[in-house]
Amino acid sequence: MPTIDEELDRKSHLYSLIMPVMNQFLPNLQNGKGMYFLFVKSESKTPSGLPARPVLTSYYKSRHFARARAANDPYTNYTSPTETILCNDTHQSMYSQLLCGLVLRHEVLRVGAVFASGFIRAIKFFENNWTSLCKDVRNGTVDHRIVTDPVVRLAVSRVLVGPNPGLADFLERECRRDDTSSSPSWRGIIPRVWSNCKYIDVIVTGAMSQYIPAIDHYGGGSLPLVCSMYASSECYFGLNLNPLCNPDEVLYTLVPTMAYFEFLPVDRFVEKEIKLVDLVDVKLGQEYELVVTTYAGLYRYRVGDVLRVGGFKNKAPQFTFVCRKNVVLSIDSDKTDEVELQTAVTRAAVQHLAPLGASLVEYTSYAETSNVPGHYVLFWEIDNGVMIERSSSTVSESCLAVEEGLNSVYRQGRVWDSSIGPLEIRVVESGTFDAIMDHAVTELGASINQYKTPRCVKRGPIFEMLNSRVVSSHFSPRLPKWAP
């Protein structure tokens, strides 16, 4: 997406509005810090030599971010030193940010990450590495085997100050609390360790809603989940003026100086006759596809988000996020639409099944997020499955072929920061998708003439039916190709 320097001024302005809004509901947040897990990703250059990088990486490396941190801006008053955020090694960055957050735990009034998936990964990382973290807290050191970057080590050392055996003892007690139970659990670990924390700031709308149960688990059900702002790579849009509302009641108020906003009514969309609606003309209860014209050069660009007008703040319309148009799978910042998935699956089947005299009868997909990192699951019904079972590597290579056919954001998540796990194909027995259609027709009242196999499923009867008929499971054997 094209951007210009002054666009960062607008984004910084929007960030500066978040704390005043939050202070209306939770006063004195400026008296503490935020423990946010923020990371940069890889950069590249266009053929003409322009830098190309993720929008947040661009912001974290900008003078705007550095200036805000130097000025002790309340929004960017984080426990993480800037050096730990800018560390290119995700493992070192995560460890360092957690270590600083633990040492400064009494100052932490809010915790979060950009996406819910990233926050879950951070807490899971804590769960898997707490013994090393406690050792460093006790000794006042930074494990040189984990954090090898000297710049990061120096920045973290300034936070540690010295040994803290009392804090280490406390952390060990909390981390071991459930070890003797029949089902060890870290339920409520966030308020137990960061006892002054008032809320969890993460995006849990849209595809990220699948992580709400996991966040509630770690938050003990006592901390509100706050979706503070609405933004995308193309443009930053607006704020949630009622941040303590339930996640399914979030309404965003667009800031009209961020871009020129127009709206495409989704129920009246005709390809040959597009009638766009201005911000002041949207109707309560109507759903629209968001269209933006940005200062950086996008003209009437269809973002792909479907919004519903849920109310008004004075005369300003407020929108609830309905869905990302055509997106079927998402684990982290990746977004895979139906056409892209279809193309990747078809190509993999042609490459690996056809040479063995087999073919793909039908398929669907599922975003598996019960483990960290989450991963894509494809349910495949294969004609001549017996032949395929004789060569298990065929399906594993098919997994890799599908991954190779997905977009660069997905492959970056697999290769760069391991935010997405290996793709899995679960082969189901013959007749499975016929049984699913029968269920849809007889139990759900679907028309047999209009029935279409869902390309993505969620937990429920259809998912359980698919899982009950799995005959084998296969994972991608190696990382897909990706280069910055």
Number of domains: 3
Shape: globular
Largest sheet: 8 strands, antiparallel
Helical content, roughly? 25-40%
Strand proportion, as a percent range, falls in: 15-25%
- Rounded to the nearest angstrom, the distance between the terminal CA atoms is 16 Å
What structural category do the secondary elements indicate? Answer: alpha+beta
Uncertain stretches = none
Strand order of the largest sheet: 7-8-9-14-13-12-10-11
Q: What do the pLDDT scores average to?
A: 89
Keywords: Ligase
Domain GH3 C-terminal: 340-459
Protein name: Indole-3-acetic acid-amido synthetase GH3.6
Domain GH3 middle: 252-324
Overview features:
36% helix; 484 residues; globular; 3 domains; 8-stranded antiparallel beta sheet; alpha+beta
Structure description:
It comes from Linum tenue. Belongs to the IAA-amido conjugating enzyme family. One of its GO terms (cellular component) is cytoplasm. Keywords: Ligase. Residues 252-324 form the GH3 middle domain. The chain is of the alpha+beta class and 484 residues long. It folds into three domains: 5-229, no CATH class; 231-324, no CATH class; 327-475. 36% of the residues lie in helices and 22% in strands. It has 16 helices and 20 strands. It has helices spanning 5-25, 55-60, 63-70, 82-85, 90-103, 116-139, 150-160, 165-176, 189-193, 212-219, 338-352, 385-389, 392-404, 408-415, 432-442, 461-468, and strands spanning 33-37, 44-45, 51-52, 108-115, 199-203, 225-226, 229-231, 236-239, 252-254, 260-265, 277-278, 287-293, 301-313, 316-324, 327-329, 336-337, 359-368, 375-383, 424-428, 470-475. The strands form five sheets. Strands 7-8-9-14-13-12-10-11 form an eight-stranded antiparallel sheet, with helices on one face. A four-stranded parallel sheet has the order 1-4-5-6. Strands 17-18-19-20 form a four-stranded mixed sheet. Helix 5 packs across helix 6 (116-139), helix 5 runs parallel beside helix 7 (150-160) and helix 6 packs parallel to helix 10 (212-219). The longest helix is centred in the N-terminal third of the chain and has 24 residues, at 116-139. It starts with a helix and ends in a 9-residue tail after the last strand. The mean pLDDT is 89.
